[in-house]
Amino acid sequence: MNRSYRPAGPRTPVALSLLGLFSVPGAFAQQAAPQAPVTPSAQIQPAPGAVVPQTLRPVQIKASAEDNDFGANANSVSRLPAELRDIPQSVTVINQAVMQSQGATSLASALRNVPGLTIGGAEGGQIGTNINLNGFSARTDVFLDGARDRAQYYRDTFALDSIEVLMGPSSMLFGRGSTGGVINQVTKKPTLKAADEVQVSASTTGLVRTTLDHNQPLSDTAAFRVAVMGQQGDATTRDQTKLQDFGIAPSLKLGIGTPTQITLTGLLQHNRDMPDYGVPPLNGAPVNVNPKTAYGFTDDRTISDIGALGALVEHKLTPTSSIRNQTQYNNVTTNARETAPQGIGTISASGVYTPLSTGSTAVPAAATSALPLSQLWVRQQSHDRVIHDTSLFNLTEFNAKFETGAVRHALLAGFELGRDTYNNQAYYRNGSCNGTALNPAGGTSGYVACTPLLDPARTNSPGNAPSAAGNLATASATTVAAYFNDTLELSPQFKLVGGLRQDRYSASIGNSIPTATAAASLNQVVNFTSVRAGALWQPTKAQSYYLSYSTSFNPSLEQLVSTTGSSQPLPPTTNKAYEAGGKWDLNGGDLSLSAAAFQITQDNARSQNPDGTYSATGTVRVTGARAGAAGRVTDRLQVFGGYTHLNATIVDGIAPGTNGMVPANTPKDSASLWSTYAITPQWEVGAGATYSSSRFANNTNLVQVGAYTRWDAMLAYHQPKYDIRLNVFNLFNTNYYDALIPSDGGRAVPGLGRSATVSVAYRF
Hints:
Residues 84-182 form the TonB-dependent receptor plug domain. This protein is mainly beta. Helices cover 3% and strands 53% of the residues. The protein is built from 4 helices and 44 strands.
């Protein structure tokens, strides 16, 4: 399908001003996506003044919204209205057009389009896609087609149609968690239009990737679709990011266009990645070494096998009512052999390693030293484990539209059952440094070896540090919940939204080697009522203004690991949010703008005691504002971007020395902008920037990571049967830090250096 700009139309003052605003970078392009042949009636002539050589054939486009529109954003979660303007919360939808244009192949890279979202490390180590949203961890707030996707693994985009980010506490809609928001992955579904696309890409880092997307109608009411991915090589410019991944995602849809539709989905994925724990802190900042420097061993690896099966049955009872039942089963096993830079120290003449001063042992702090970096060493610590995660969830929902007098209702009632299990067998490797033992006799700290700070050895894990089994953590949890939500349309301009959800969350955990911070067993039952309320004023179809209030809760055993160390589990953290905002559709709906101000408060935040146990005495408050834009400014120019300001404060300490501090990995200001411009129907260019102000790597604010701006660019050539695209990442080779890991004083993972990817997509 040819890509082209659309016919020029009247320019509104807002459109013209936005064009001037987003033209500053000087390089734009329009996203390319497959387009099927259309009838001659869809042919158009170029806009007045368009640069189109006479040798070019007439351009063909769809009469409706194009597949490559950045603003083609309709919500897919059944618990929410399809129209974003009817949702009294901030929502960002990253569709396939945006991901393809940017060359985003992982969930983490696609989510860089959401200011206020940062990448972090998981509790107990860095595994998988771990996200902080609006200053709070969202590790358990990732969903797949509206069902919880809790396991730790690296998530790819090959089977995704879009990614939806709902800001703010949302337990009424999604259950436990969602303090900062919810990330929902929307998978590709079969359609009645035959389509095939193969894409091959190669990166200057050494990564080669191939994807296939095949959609085949089986009848007038049934279709089959399968997405396939394989990739191998170095994912980034770092010394330790080799991977070898492959996956397949089949789906079958029956009864398309009939009152009863059945959708069956699956995901099978195998990942073999190399973990990156970044660099340790020194003198209040990430240690100043070459950005490529890594401190793991060459035989480190994280192997994950992911299996997910989904079944959805939708039945239309009447023209205004329907019922749906969704079942989702996930099974993920991760075998991790990982090594992290635990700290920096010196080595005496006799070969004894001594860590640098880090202040109070109860408060992780930045190591300090006046010695030259060439005289410093890094102590390496093993983080080995085999994790098995399973989850089975079933949701039944009833939707109905009806009237009571002059009031129109859109009613949702639902019932959810869920079961989670978790097993984590820890291992450790105790070794030595220059022949001197790093661990006391009988210890299980897992200090493997030491290596020079500036020039770490690139070797396998030492043979004199064999792997030994440590603690076996087991856990299970059940969820039973009922909820309802009603949207009352008092008039065409005024709507009220209200909902309640009652959750019963029951969890138990056990540890084979109990310690002061890991209880032999704990049981917890939490009964919680979540609330959602909102008011919308929509004076025209192009404007929507809202006020909202929402709550959520996080059980202390939510992640199915012990964070108490006491004989009794802690009460859940409770979260509440207030938000006021507006949403505007301009240019006939081609361009969407949004803005909001909000406050999120978390009470009963867990605070760490000097002995390593926890108490529920902390309070964290985040006050902020955000703005966003998505869609077409003109027929040639598209934009996708946003800005977020977060004023985050630990009101009551969640650890000694944290009162009044800023939560880790929470930048005060962040922004992103991606813009594309169609030079001709065949040629496109694009550019964008991602900005983050400085952040702290730990809650004591003793390690600070500097602000950065990263620029990316794109050049694409399109023909009806194929696309060729060049993406350049980190155009100016900016040295910045990507993921932050609060443990061990606060580690930071250097970001991607300048690199490029060439991709070719061919449509059959």
